[in-house]
Each structure stands twice: as structure tokens, then as C-alpha cells.
Amino acid sequence: MAHSNEFIEYLLELLEQTGEVKARAMFGGYGIYQHGIMFALVTDDALYLKTDEGNLADFEERQLQPFRYERNGKQLSMSYSEAPGEVLDDPDEMIVWARKAINAARRSAMKKRAR
Description:
With about 120 residues, the chain is of the alpha+beta class. It has a single domain, classed as YgaC/TfoX-N like chaperone (Yope Regulator, Chain: A, 2-Layer Sandwich). Helices cover about 35% and strands about 35% of the residues. The protein is built from three helices and six strands; from the N terminus they run αββββαββα. It has a six-stranded antiparallel sheet. The chain is globular. The model has no long low-confidence stretch (mean pLDDT about 90).
């Protein structure tokens, strides 16, 4: 899949050790997927990783902010938090954080299927 966004191409390179990953344009940003499950999103060249009870504490300990957006004048947040800055420069750390986000995304998908 060709991307015009150099940042997205760079992220896909960093993430290729987790398995096949793809980026899809969405709402002015991109979703990053593995096997059809979104585990990261990118907006304004910032990477956000999927969070749940299994990995949220890692983000909170570092005071990494959740992804927020405005809708009908209200601030809403999603279960994605900003990735630590150093993961963009350290492929090994990126894989550690990405795998946790992939696992969170899988757990979330399983919960949705169970409903």
C-alpha cells in the first residue's frame, strides 16, 4: 500500500517486526491495523496506541495523554494514548509498546464479539 505521508511510511517500517501492518486514511489521520484490527492511530504526526486495563498504567506512569477530540462542543477521549517519544527512535522499544497495544486491541475486539 503506497502512502504519501513519510511519517506513516516510517511507522510501518518500525512496526513490520510485529507482523503485517497496514495504514488506512481516516478522518484526516490514519489508523494502523494488524489483521484488520486497529491498534494505533496517527493524527498531526503524533502516534497514539490502543490502551485497556492491561497496558493503561504504562501510559499513566509516564503521564502520556489520551487521544482527545471535540464533538458537539464537548471534549471526548478514546482508548488510545500518545506513544512515548523515544519509541520513534528505538525500534526495539517500539515493538514492546506496539505489541502491548496490539494485545489491547485484540482484547477489545474479543469483548465486542462476545456482546
